[in-house]
Amino acid sequence: MSELCDFGLIGLAVMGENLALNVESRGFSVAVFNRTVAKVDEFIEGRAAGKRFVGCHSVEDLVRNLVRPRKVMMLVKAGPAVDEFIDKLIPLLSPGDVIIDGGNTHFADTERRTQYVESKGLLFIGTGVSGGEEGALKGPSMMPGGSPAAWPLVQPIFQAIAAKVGPQEDIPCCEWVGPGGAGHYVKMVHNGIEYGDMQLICEAYAMLKGTLDLSNDELYDVFDEWNRGELQSYLIEITRDIFSVVDEEAGGHVVDKILDSAGAKGTGKWMSQLALDLGVPSTLVTMAVFARSLSALKEARVRASQILKGPIGAMVDVGDRKAFIEQVRQALYASKISSYAQGFVQLQAAAAEHKWPLNYGDCALLWRGGCIIRARFLDWIKDAFTQDPNLENLLLYPHFTRVVEDAQPAWRNVVITATQLGIPVPAFSTALAYYDGYRSPRLPANLLQAQRDYFGAHTYRRIDMPGEFHTEWLEHRRPPKA
Fold first, then answer.
1. Residue 173: DSSP 8-state
2. pLDDT at residue 338 greater than cutoff 70
3. What's phi and psi for 438, nearest 5 deg?
4. Of 223, 225, 265, 444, which residue is 20 to 30 A from 124 by alpha carbon distance?
5. pLDDT of residue 318
6. For 190-228, b where at least 16 C-beta lie within 10 A, e where not — what string?
């Protein structure tokens, strides 16, 4: 190629390669660079052969091969490497050029980098990219934020490569989220909700195995049916598929041979930490993170299982098998609504804290395709915020209110049954506790405030008069019996 390229990309791991191929397939020419330059040559001679790519062996070469205003996207490991490339790019770029970070970055780093890059006369975008390797190649969900002036420059490319939804499959799952770190914050909440969804599905699996002893073939059929209704989603779909895969060499289903110890990459933890900072009860994602932490204590759990006993000889008649499967489905769906309600409450609190003009309906739209939590359910969330952009909590949207009310008997019975049998369902229980707490006009926090005032003179407010109050509890208490 002799003409200048439309787009530059740094980082040719699988995600980078796939995204570059996606961009090129939409009619744009791409210049690519990788720190290990042999990777550039391998890509140009391999998957990129015959396509509109320019392989570059230096950052300087990359910049020289881009049309102005230049648009350079980094898909490198989050952290110092991003700052290193930003510092390399700044002296080489011109005012109005755009630097893009497409990694899994903490929103506060994107806030800082946006200010820094703008101070140098350039524009910055921090964009969440969800959908994994397949999404990067075929159409991811993208959540860009940063310098507002940069959006018109990258919008044609981003919306061309993003996943498409709608009756005509013409609505891109990519829209401007907001300034600073807004895009990466929305991506973080997406990932936190993903943690919750996965844990809830695992608990539904545990209930169906622990109560009905369903085979993997039967579990496949259950999840296949669920995927045709309200729970239709990517995660339900892949869970269904997992139950069908057999180890051809060793025999038996692969899922039964996998060690029950889960890891985490950090975004769920970030969401929990930031929820604590904001004072919002994102309890389900926090419990999902802790569930992974507990699963990682595999050796300790095996030792404890020899000592700690659960319900002895517990026998619970769950009744009709098909009816109980339906109860688990309803419990899963109601818990999912509770989880998403928490996620959007946190988004609202973060938007208020950082003065981001978030459009919550658009956030739901961004997740309807290309990403891990894509689901039919998100259409109703989009409708909820379209009808009421200031909706306080998704549980108050009439459609979800009805669903959860109808599911309550099943939801509670599943949690009760799990408790009686000693099957841990922390996410189901936490989701239900959030629902019960949110619908309670009075909680026992009045006693908690009295305790704080007793031991620390923290004061309290009253329901019958304004102001802050303190009681000398020791002076007024009833003396204990001698």
1. S
2. yes
3. -70, -30
4. 265
5. 81
6. bbbbbbbbbbbbbbbbbbbebbbebebebbbebbbebbe
Is the pLDDT reported for residue 313 higher than 80? no
d(CA 273, CA 450): 27
By residue count, the chain amounts to: 482
**Residue 194 a catalytic site member:** yes
Mean pLDDT of 72-100: 96
Active-site residue identified among 17, 24, 194, 203 = 194
CA-to-CA distance for 415 and 425, rounded, in angstroms? 7
DSSP labels, 69-85: SPEEEE-S-SSHHHHHH
Calculate mean pLDDT across residues 161-176.
92
Burial class for 61, CB neighbours closer than 10 Å (0-12, 13-18, 19+): middle
Q: pLDDT, tens digit, for every residue of 411-429? A: 999 999 999 999 999 999 9
| Alpha-carbon gap, residue 5 to 68, rounded angstroms | 9
User: How far out from the chain centre does Cα 305 lie?
Assistant: 32
Mean pLDDT of the chain, nearest integer: 95
pLDDT score recorded for residue 92:
98
Ranges assigned E (strand) in 18-101: 30-33, 53-56, 71-74, 98-101
Token pair of 27 as six digits: 């009619």
d(CA 152, CA 150): 6
Of these residues, 39, 71, 187, 336, which one is catalytic?
A: 187
* Whole-number Å distance between alpha carbons of 384 and 344: 12
* pLDDT higher than threshold 90 for residue 189: yes
**pLDDT level of residue 314 (50, 70, 90 thresholds):** low
- Structure tokens that stand for 171 in this block: 């609505």
Alpha-carbon distance of 16 to 31, in angstroms, equals 12
Name all contacts of 431-436 with Cβ < 8 Å and 24+ positions apart.
431/200, 431/284, 431/334, 431/335, 431/336, 431/338, 431/339, 432/334, 432/335, 432/338, 433/283, 434/281, 434/283, 434/284, 434/338, 434/341, 434/342, 435/334, 435/338, 435/395, 435/404
The whole-angstrom separation of Cα 211 and Cα 208 is 6
* pLDDT (average), residues 110-132: 96
Whole-number pLDDT of residue 2: 61
Q: How many helices (DSSP H) and strands (DSSP E) are in the chain?
A: 20, 10
Percent of the chain topping pLDDT 90? 91
Structure-block tokens of residue 96? 């109005």
266 pLDDT above the threshold of 60: yes
Q: What's the average model confidence in pLDDT over 92-108?
A: 96
Query: In sequence order, what E strands does 43-151 have?
Result: 53-56, 71-74, 98-101, 123-130, 141-146
Amino acid sitting at position 103: G
Residue 181 and residue 177: Cα distance in Å, rounded? 9
Give the separation between CA 299 and CA 340, rounded to whole angstroms.
33
Token pair in block for residue 154? 């990258």
